Amino acid sequence: MNGLWIPILLAAELLPSAHPDLQLFVVENGAMQTPPPLYDLGAVAPGDLATTHFRLRNQSNATATLSYLEVRGTGFGPRNPIALPVTLGAQATADFTVTFSAPNIGAYSAALDSEGISVILYATVKAGIPLPTPRLAIDLPRAHSAQQGSAQVTFSAPAARGGSGTLLLDFEPAVEGTVDSMIAFASGGRSAEFTFARGDVQAQFGNSAAALFQTGTTAGRLTLTAQIGGASQEATVSIDAAPIGISGVQGRRSSGTIEVQVTGFDNTRTAGTLAFTFFDGVGNTITPGTIRTNVSSIFRQFYHTSDSGGSFLLRAVFPVTGDAGQIAGFEVSLGNSAGAATSGSTQF
Amino acid sequence: MVRILAATALVVALSTTATAQVATLQIQIIEGEGGVHRPGSRSARLLTVEVTDETGRPVPNAVVSFHLPEEGPSGMFPNGLRTEVVTGDERGRASLRSLRWNRAAGRLQIRIIASKEQARAGIVSFQYITEDGGSAAEARTRSTPDKPAQKISRHRGRWITVLALVGGGAVAGALAARGSSGAPTAQTAAAITTPAITIGNPTITVGKP
Fold it and tell me: Is the ipTM above a cut-off of 0.85?
């Protein structure tokens, strides 16, 4: 028998190889390494996903054809990670990903075979793998009303397992009973879901690493809370009372009247004192000079029913005797409990 | 010859505390009022004003500033700004030598303020920028919906006189403050007014933006 086998083995050694000259690597954090014959994907929680990136490289200086690559084993996949055949130029590579997930606790294995390469993949599913503890980072350059900030949830170490959590936005107004629906996440509402995978150091809000939020138009205290399982972290931002924010001023002249429109917000809900000054083309103040009025009751009534936070549109219509066309511009000042805000000169 | 057709404002500010000498300036446009210009064109020797005292004698070396609008029909002075300052000559005359108009068609006002020591005087010059291919008459009509075009175009000289009391200086101060910063001050007894216009108390409404 031995005398028969020796020539066959010698002949096999002398013949050209039946497989292309490929080498398998594991790609982790940008580095490549050759996997051992038994490669451990690690431990995961039931239903959690373990992912490993592989790379096949044509080691020769000639074109090679990859026509066989298969992953076989319960919980591992995909069975055919690459659509075959693939032509690889000299030193060219082909990347693919193998995942593992299983619902039940236990040890699992699979065979990864390709063109004379064979690696056993191994993974375990076990209970008690901890969720990461969230850390909350707030980016809000100016802690004022009408601003946009962002919140990120990070972990002190790569997550040992994947999962999800919730970021909550709460608001305590400085004036009790004040409602401000503008205080919300950009995605809508005051709750934002985030997810993370095993190995992540930062949670994802959909496709974004941060959740954007609006500070609204009301003074008070914003509280953001990140929750994962039973762990949470909180961050608080104070939005101080401020003079009225003027976002737009417009003037319109017509026969016998002029109309001034001011859009803005009052984060104190105490707006009331108004002062209007009109100028002619040379900059002279027009009779009767600065016109002052207090409309606190009108603002109070408006805010009592408004659901737009502190935002408002003020319209002031003035009767004019004489040629309104000579009124070239105006300035308006609005006051609240935090001070007065002035529009600057506006031309008709 | 220059004719004075309208005195748009004559305001005298009195100060109960002022006892110093009175300085009065008058400013008059003697050349270039109501000019019509093609969009994007350059004008040379556009405007000439004359600064005199209350007796009509020229006031030499008065400082005259010309202010173009920040928006809409306007232009740019050679200094790259919309404000130019010129010192008057011995005859009290100051000329705006060069200006490039922008391409926004319509009527525009050039605010002109003359100053000499404590006294100030201001006047407005109306100019017109036509649309490409448009006529002067079209430019005037289009840009002055609230005034007859011919009335404006014939205003060869309009006067604004400011009588300042040296020492009190309230009127001059108020005008100077407007001219320098554009930020109006609160209404005071010395504020300058145009008697022909009166603005009444407003009707206020507040609603959602």
Answer: no
